[in-house]
Amino acid sequence: MSGLLHSVRIPLLVLLYQVLVVVANIGFKRSAGSTTATAFLAWQALGNLAGFLSVLTYTALLRWLPVHVAVGLTMGLGFASVQVFTAWLIFHEPIGWSKWLGTVLVVLGITLIAGGR
Fold first, then answer.
1. Where does the record say this protein resides (predicted)?
2. CB 117 within 8 A of CB 68
3. 3-state SS of the chain: helix, strand, coil percent to 5?
4. pTM tops 0.85, yes or no
């Protein structure tokens, strides 16, 4: 069992990081559109909590990955996650072909970086 846990630890931490980054961005976007102080503070609290937890998750990843790989996986995939899931799917913000191409190139670059470890 510990062998299985060891083999899925990094992918699970990367996935958790992505989820937390998306939740943080949702919180901040919703807080920006809040019409009451209570709603603003609630969304800010959610965004900041998710952001803090994402930093802890990133720190855990650094225990097992070199910095250049951890940065590529978290920041690059974080960009793609926010671009696709938060902006396009949740908030229905338009994403033109050049942004889609850029997102694909970021993911390809991450694949090259992660594959070279």
1. Cell membrane
2. no
3. 85, 0, 15
4. no
